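The instructor's notes for this session suggest beginning with a concrete chain rather than abstract definitions. Hand out the sequence below and ask the class to guess, before any prediction is shown, which regions might be ordered.
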Amino acid sequence: MSTDAQRLSRLADLDTNTVSDALDFLELPGATVGLRPLWHCPRIVGRASTIQLAPKQADGGLTVHPITSVIAESQGDDRVLVIAGGIEGVSCWGDIVANAATMKHIRGTVIDGFSRDIDGSEEIGYPVYGRGVTMVSARNRLVQTGSGAPVTVAGVEVAQDDFVIADRCGTVFVPAARIDEVLDIAERTAAKQAGMVSRIRAGQSVAEAMHDRHFAAVMEERRPAETR
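After discussion, reveal the predicted structure:
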């Protein structure tokens, strides 16, 4: 049986497009729209540490700055911070927390919201994915209401320890319980697509190379021989 480290290594050999296709085959949600790199940053592959934010109430008083407690308590080197509950035009991230996350070996941050100080994240090479960039602070506007529990990010439910892959095309989440199936289908899909490109370059008609039966074969091939 694969270890989580091996699963992450296999996931790192894929891209969001192929993983999204695998989720489609299994009729699973996971692919998001609009969560893209906020600077020309490296891709992210890791496990989700979930954080829920919400608007601060007028009488909320002073509190710990959002996200800081999760960073402080983070363990291991496979973590990706997944932040839900952002407000349009208000920052959920900045260069100070990026520096703190780097010190804890966190792999990157995915925000269903906005980041400020993006030059500071870029300066230290810390990957940030989200909806956009702003200069407006979260202070007195957002509070953290939870962590380590399921959150909804761009319409997708993400649980603690789910797998995350993000690149220039966007961000995809894979349920931890289904990662082996998704990896198997994604690897088969990648091989099929590479074969299509090779045949097209060799002169085959694109209509033939991309016929639906080639994609259908991905699911057929994964069935155990005794069930065919």
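Then share the key points. Confidence is low (pLDDT under 50) at residues 224-228. The helical segments are 4-12, 16-25, 68-73, 95-103, 118-123, 179-201, 206-209, 212-222.
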